[in-house]
Amino acid sequence: YKRQVSTQSTGEEIPYTIGIPSTQENLDKILDGQSVERQLLILQRIRLCNHVSFSKENRDKMKRHYTFLFNRLVRLASSPELSTEMIDVLIQPLHELTWDKMGVHALSLFREFLKSMEQKLISPQNGNWGALELIMLRVIGYIWPVSDKRHGIVTPASLLMGQYLFWHPIVTYKDVLTKLYVTNIFLTFLSPAKRFASEPFCFLFSVLDAFTTSSDPDIPMYSPSWNIPPDLLSLQNPRRANTLTHTDQPIHFLLLTGHREKELTDVD
Fold first, then answer.
1. For 150-182, b where at least 16 C-beta lie within 10 A, e where not — what string?
2. Which residues of the chain are modeled with pLDDT < 50?
């Protein structure tokens, strides 16, 4: 007999056997308000008590459960009140379920999301990626093997990152931060597989060149998107230097949460 977790009190003992939530709302009610440790324990017991090897019916149930976890991840990553701890809670269960005979279903969900990222990239109205896209790229690197020569998720994600670095124009300081973050993720995909891509290195060269007072003619600019506006990154202006250094959060946190966005982009 599998019990459902009570959502009334976070201090109650968690049942050892927990049934699979039947709806997205039920899963959210079970996890919302719980501590990180309790959420991890709840999700672990759901997976172990309803393992796909126990019965054929569990396969369909776990597919639905995987979809609920994926949707919750997308919702949390899209929330204005971004909590990285709550997002981290979902990565381990998604990774375990992906390699627990849920790989085909996981591929379909992540492929659909990559398609939405591509559509957003080529959209003339809104081609910039936000916290959701950046977090999902990082999650892909945690769940899927980046060392494979070819992979159904990692390879398309790498191509998308290269397209973003190559095509998306730089207008504000936040555009530079976003591309730096994408570059960091891109390099973590390339290094284990011993692959090479020119886009992250060309962009890094353009950033270094932008910090100088004059452009270096020896640095090739193959794409107009690498042309950083004059003085956008220059630290010659004392006011701008103060803006870049007096922050109470890591730069990746400011980028993902959008905090201090006005302060980061309001430059002379």
1. ebbbbbbbbebbbebbbebebebbbbbbbbbbb
2. 1-2, 6-9, 237-241, 243-268
The whole-model pTM stands at: 0.79
Three-class DSSP category at 33: coil
Cα atoms in the 13 Å half-sphere on the side-chain side of 64: 15
Which of these, 2, 94, 101, 102, lies nearest to 50 by C-alpha position?
Answer: 2
Cα–Cα dist 145/205, whole Å: 28
The model's pLDDT over 206-264, given as tens digits with 9 standing for 90+, comes to: 887 777 655 555 555 555 556 777 667 655 544 444 544 444 444 444 444 444 344 44
Q: How many helices (H) and strands (E) does the chain have?
A: 12, 0
- DSSP character string of 109-169: HHHHHHHHHHHHHH-SS-----HHHHHHHHHHHHHS-TTSSS-TTHHHHHHHHHHHHHHSP
DSSP letter at 205 equals H
